[in-house]
Specification:
Blueprint (H helix, E strand, L loop, with lengths): L3 E5 L6 H13 L3 E6 L10 H12 L5 E6 L3 H7 L4 E6 L5 H14 L4 E6 L9 H9 L10 H11 L5
Parallel strand pairs: 1-2, 1-4, 2-3, 4-5
The protein binds 4'-phosphopantetheine.
């Protein structure tokens, strides 16, 4: 069985991410959830905060470890002994960006294969950005993120949830 990397910004981890991580944990021998340090996005949570939140919710999966990376994802994956990159696909709108990344990663190193998992139906509309927006505006994010993450969001944004 191969080892896999589940990369992303995870700002913060959502239940949609967790669904993909859990399914990857059942398919691959070792799974590394890899937080990108050098993402072009400006994150709400620091890399260390994102790692802490992920570590808390991934403890239930004995074959999942959490790490941060910078530089090229394919080089990082191979350095971890992983030959598979797992990405979740939600709507068709994800496809163009994901195809571009998968093809570029294959061009960079064909020893690493990208595997897509269809999102769980309950999470197809979910993204970290939309969760942050709802939390910022005081809406309920219950069921969208793990409770521990919801608490951190509340602390960070200083908003009570309704
Ligand atoms: O959760 P995101 O923001 O969609 O994740 C994007 C991520 C981190 C997977 C992507 O930006 C990435 O792989 N960055 C590392 C740099 C890299 O290898 N770029 C080439 C891939 S096209």
């Amino acid at each position: 069985m191969a080892n896999a990397v589940v990369p992303g910004s995870f700002d913060p981890v959502t239940n949609g991410h967790l669904d993909i991580i859990a399914r990857a944990a059942g398919m691959f021998e070792q799974v590394t959830v890899a937080v990108a340090r050098n993402s072009s996005k400006t994150p709400l949570f620091s890399t260390e905060e994102r790692l802490e939140m992920l570590a808390e919710v991934c403890t239930v999966y004995p074959n999942v470890t959490v790490d941060a990376f910078e530089g090229l994802l394919v080089s990082y994956a191979l350095g971890r002994g992983a030959t598979v990159i797992v990405r979740g696909l939600r709507a068709v709108s994800d496809f163009e960006y994901e195809l571009q990344m998968a093809l570029m990663n294959r061009r960079l190193n064909s020893a690493v294969e990208t595997v897509f998992m269809m999102t769980g139906a309950d999470y197809s509309y979910l993204s970290s950005n939309i969760v942050k927006e709802i939390a910022r505006l005081g809406g309920s994010i219950e069921g969208l993120v793990p409770n521990s993450v919801g608490q951190r969001l509340q602390q960070k944004l200083g908003k009570p949830r309704c």
